[in-house]
Amino acid sequence: MCDQLRYARLRAIKRGVSVATPSKTMLTEAIAAARAGDRSRARDLLSRLLRADSSNAEYWIWMSAVVESKRERIYCLESAIKLDPTNRAAMRGLVILGARTPEEAEIASAVRIPRRQVAAIATGPSIKRDIQIPWKWVGSGAVGLVAIVAIWGLAQIIGPWLGALAGRQPYRPASTLPPVSPTATSTHLPGTPTATLIPAATRVMRTPISTELAGTPLSMLVSASSTPTLVLGVTPHVYGAYDSGIKALIRGDYELALEYMTQVTDADSDLPDAHYFRGEALRLMGEIAESIKAYDRSVNTDPDYAPAYLGRGRALLLRNTDAALNDFNRALRLDPSMTEAYLELGTYYSSGKLWLKLETTMEAALEKGVTTPMIYIRLSEAQTNLGKPQEALENALEGSANDPTLLLGYLAVGRAYVAIGVDTFDPGYHSAALWPLKTYVIYTPDDHRGLTSLGRAQIGLGEYEEALTLLNSALELQDRYSPAYLARGILNLEIGEYEAAIDDLTLARRYSLATFDILFSTGRAHFLIGNFNDALIDFINPAIASANQETDFTIRGIKLAECYALRAQVYENINQLDAAIREWRWVLSLENARPETRAMAETHVAELSGQGPTRTPTTSPSDTPTPTPSATATLPSPTATITATSTTTPSKTPTP
Fold this sequence. Notes:
single chain; mainly alpha; Serine Threonine Protein Phosphatase 5, Tetratricopeptide repeat; 0% strand; elongated
């Protein structure tokens, strides 16, 4: 039977008929099964292929897309890397899954250093384990590129899940917003006329990855074209062992790299880069103390060799952070464009929540021409936490567009949209935040930041049940995370659970500074249960003081308008009608107040001053306005006085 098949195949070939091999046919079936969502069938076929040929990197990459667990995906991608050390798709997948660092990915994607065409001088005892050209791996890499093209075709087929369409709106315009006044900030808000969108906004993916594809490395589902970079610190030498050591380091064979570099330093101890690469191999092997000694040798050999300070700083991070930071800064003084040093500082400042230092450092990197996508993403993170959401959004979009495989980019974009939505109460921004945050949460389901931001966006869109599930999960992961308590407190406000809202908002304030959002929301909660004294003195007045510190005139006007409107309602409920009229008139003085808020203020002023018909009593909570953009200078914040206190829930506003 086998002979018959072989002869039939030979006859077909002679006739010029293309005959697919069984392995190609089976791979085609596996790919088709993966596209159809039949992951079980795809796994079965790929398992057979791997049993027949476990040295095919393409099979491992496809298998990583259909296995169940993160551990299995890492194993598959690591297997592909062993077969094809320069496979960019596999390396990016490992970075996304947290199994490799971005620095390792940069090393793996580095341009290969050509073998020197000079005679190697005597370097002591030679090492016989020299590097041979891995033709089989090169072939596998070519096949892997074909696989990536096929996967991109899959991404096009599942269009409802994937998009990178130029010209598509990055947010849903809010039809209720008026045009921006001349005194508004230069950054346009949704619903305002603008000639061009943020350029990066037309280059980012705006459709969340489907849960069915959550196991697929993100690098396979997006289009990315990062430029390969040279390995940091490489200096041309005539030593063959030096080149072999670099190649071993690139493919992750750190022990062999150490052997080669030790051979070089034994032959010539005055080469700072050889000592540095010895330190790199030792550090990546976990031999921290020995790596520091190697970096010290490099620094002592050449005090101006910047990479040695970078390496030693990385090794010192867990032992002496001050010394590590000094080394990073010394490296930047010697080489102001060293990307890796900026990124190390960025990671440290981010982990320590040192937002001002993070912003300053990332801005310094951009000034020096360092435009690595992660620089923009870190800068966006700092600006979001410093209350600069518009700038944060611009930088997040830029970084994410330049490298859409970076998961932190999706988090940065989503958080910036949410922050603007919170400041403006514009649901269009919350809607825009869904696509990046859902993608981030699919790949990083255990990050309380992503869960909280997505929950906050869903609250803004009225998706309370989904939001509550996310916020509860976030607090299970981090039970002292103030933004999660704040978001859940606002959710409870929206569904009428005012006591629960106060409990959550109190915890939010305990674990964070008393931000405007916390103060205003807590004041509103106390107003809604009738605690007028507490609402006015402890929360609304401090919220006004906080709003007056806002540097953005537009956002300042939004916050002040909402505080004055809420304080006016408190005065009405305690029968201080003159004070209430004053507050409503201050709302009217805000040039770009939201139309609904302005209309409510006009109605209340007319009724309270006797200029209009008596208003039919309405429930107080429905009178509570929601913010909208407006531009204003700082308005006075008179001290409130209360002559009466009600302990009952305000059901109706009084008729003058």
